[in-house]
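[Meeting: bench + compute handoff]

Bench side (C.D.) handed over the final construct sequence. Compute side (W.E.) agreed to return the predicted structure before the next meeting so the bench team could plan truncations. Sequence as handed over:
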Amino acid sequence: ERVKLAMGGDTGNPNVIEVIDIACDECPVGGYEVSDACRGCIAHRCEEVCPRHAIYFDEKQKAHIDKSKCIECGKCASVCPYSAIQNHRRPCENACKIKAISMNENKAAAIDNDKCIACGACVYQCPFGAIMDKSYILNVIDLIKKSEGNQKYKLYAVVAPSISSQFTYAKLGQVISGIKALGFYHVVEAALGADMAAYAEARELAEKDFLTTSCCPAFVAYIKSQFPDLMQYVSHTLSPAALISEYIKKTDAAAKVVFIGPCTAKKAEYREDRCKMPDGSPIVDSVLTFEELQALFDSRDIDITSLGEDVLDNASYYGRIFARSGGVTDAIRQSLKEQGLEDTDFRPIACDGIEECRIALLKKMKNVLPANFIEGMACRGGCIGGAGCLTHGEKNKAEVDKYGMEAYEKTISEAVRILNT
């Protein structure tokens, strides 16, 4: 099953996140259970409210739950004065804040594709690797081989700015050299696409009363599935990686592009019609997570710590900090200033994680949201919290900010100007 996922997974399943049923058997079934805090009270409120008569008592009057009758309604837990009945949920269920995961008749995890936004939180939290994102690593290997040493076509790698917080055992420049050693012609910062996005979204906001970001595909998917009436407010600007990839293909018609980043939802984004070139070909030809990039290094015995340092000098500070929560908001504010649009009504809210996104979107639906700009990041911390990351440490934000400060281009306008020279 894992080999199948490495080869692209179940072609009949449109979701990029899949459950390996045979591997999903180690977690306790969980559900509502009576803890040792049960005092054997005489009130027996839990028994009174149970609609299926699933509560029974032992000789010491301690409550127990008959799992064959329990329907997990939670009424017993809600009335227990001692909080002695608790709901023990599986890690994947806890991780999925949009409630897209449930247990099937075999007690294995099941994903509701209509709800799933492919954020990969369940993938990261499953302790047994029973939920995985489809891998297109073989497709990338094909792209490398068929380029014939970049003679038949040039193969570009577009790397997410969150790469600055990953591969902590080496220097960023060595990671870039390692990517080229795999057979890529050139490595380009997705952060330059972020500068492009900030420039365009600032102008879009100036023309509209309300706007949400479009850079996080999981956030956009969430709006589409749960708040379709708000899709009209999603920025029409492509995501940063798509923007810079589109630019690459406009300047080199034969080019192939692979996006490398922390995001499992990116694997779904590039199937969408809006992520196509005018001739119908994909803007991005394939996607790798940082985990998969490490796997490629290992497969080729590339020790990146032994390599020299290549330099990334395409983007500005503001493009690079798109990788962490609040970064897009900072970039839009700066872009408005640089374009002489600082008088634009800009009342932002930066939503860190899909739960905060949900609250903001609900408020917008009820017309009680004071903000007129929603920065939506499905993963906690932003892209640095993506499921495809190698590390999820507290230092990641600081590393991204440091990476931003090292940018040669100091303003968004300077970074975007490069594209016209």
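W.E. noted at the follow-up: The first strand starts at residue 17 and ends at 19. C.D. will use this when planning the next construct.
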